[in-house]
């Protein structure tokens, strides 16, 4: 069965690149959102197998989106991978304490991101 992924990023070029890599190379169905609010609506109304979530977004950052997902029974069990340019030690400690599936650091390698996502979610390719 094809996995369905929600990709959330406020930068359109990143959204398009990740979508192309994960649909073409990974073979997954992709839904995109360009804001935290949009992502929450989609996650509540459409079943998704995982979420790639940008940390640095205006209005509602990835941390706030993740917290909202965790408080909703319908979205609480969806695994989340953070997509971020933040890779300082304090950020890594915070990520480790959150219970997310993993972190992919920008800039990422387009040809290997689908393998990285599959590994972090524990999906067989």
UniProtKB/TrEMBL annotation:
InterPro entries: Bact_response_regulator, CheY-like_superfamily, Sig_transdc_resp-reg_receiver. Gene3D superfamilies: 3.40.50.2300. The modification 4-aspartylphosphate is found at residue 54. Residues 4-121 form the Response regulatory domain. Pfam families: Response_reg. Keywords: Phosphoprotein. This is Response regulator.
